[in-house]
Amino acid sequence: KIVLHVGPTNSGKTYNALKCLENANSGVYCGPLRLLAHEVFDRFNNKGVPCNLVTGEERRVLEGINVPLTSSTIEMVNLQKQVDVAVIDEIQMLSDQQRGWAWTQALLGLQAKEIHICGEPSAVPLVKSICQSINEDIEVREYKRLSTLEICPKSLDGDLKKIKKGDCVVTFSRKSIFSLKHEIEAATGLRCAVAYGSLPPETRSQQAKLFNDPNSGFDVLVASDAIGMGLNLNIKRIVFESVKKYDGIGIRHIPIPQIKQIAGRAGRFGTENTIGEVTAIEDMDLRYVHQAMEAPHKDLE
Fold it and tell me: Are 86 and 69 in contact (CB under 8 A)?
């Protein structure tokens, strides 16, 4: 049985897939980032559901008890083990030039009675055609966003003093994360937490908790595009510091689906920030954000 959960950010698709995994006798979660593998590992163990962790950097196996679940990065998933339920997160990565092989391998190779796949609507035709090629039926469950998202008509006009409590400022290099943190703290007097992909998971978890806790004194988050995938953060407003990134060859615009995914992190259902806002520091970048948010989705190839 293959179930594809699709919808925008903050629509409950991953929540529902993980519910199926939580109640399984055995199972595995496959995520795109070690941050996400850690988050699922912590979530289950905090609920009293024993879960192991396997990423490229570390392996945590709970001693002395039968552990039915494993949370892993997708490249590290064990395809030899038979399980009842598997969850594959961020299936739109299937078309990624560098890492798409890992999602293809998981979809075709996992030995699970039930596979729950989560991702963007753009992945539906491709996943359906893969399933048809191996005579597998697939059920598509569509989700709508649970909270409101508003794109601001104005940028911050380059003025960091306009950064306010509950903002997440997104930038695309680790160097600029730390320089921005210092600049914002100097301009506003607000303290900044940080989050990026290569941050050690314990540190990242601690920084996320500081930002989420209204009494911690950390009111702003400065983050990389890693926040686009998962991470439960109570963000009121996403502020793009830039919409361009060095991709190993040159400086290019962030792809439209990624802009949508990052923007979608603003506003979180079930928190005081149910209405999310999106803006940019500069006018030119906000124009690109508006174009990206209005663009129809393109099916993956």
Answer: no
pLDDT of residue 18: 97
DSSP 78: -
At residue 141, what is the residue type? R
Q: What is the DSSP string of 108-162?
A: HH-EEEEEEEEE-GGGHHHHHHHHHHTT--EEEEE---SSEEEE-SS--TT-GGG
* Segment holding 219, helix H or strand E: strand 218-223
Q: What's the pLDDT band for 197 if we cut at 50, 70, 90?
A: confident
For the cut 80, the answer to whether the pLDDT of residue 206 exceeds it is yes
User: The tokens of 294 are what?
Assistant: 């209005």
230 has a pLDDT exceeding 70: no
Give the chain's mean pLDDT. 92
> What are the distances in angstroms from CA 157 to CA 135, 227, 284?
55, 24, 10
- Residue 223: phi and psi, rounded to 5, are -140, 160
Residue carrying the six token digits 């603003």: 266
CA-to-CA distance for 228 and 246, rounded, in angstroms?
Answer: 17
Instruction: Give the C-alpha separation, 209 to 76, whole Å.
Output: 27
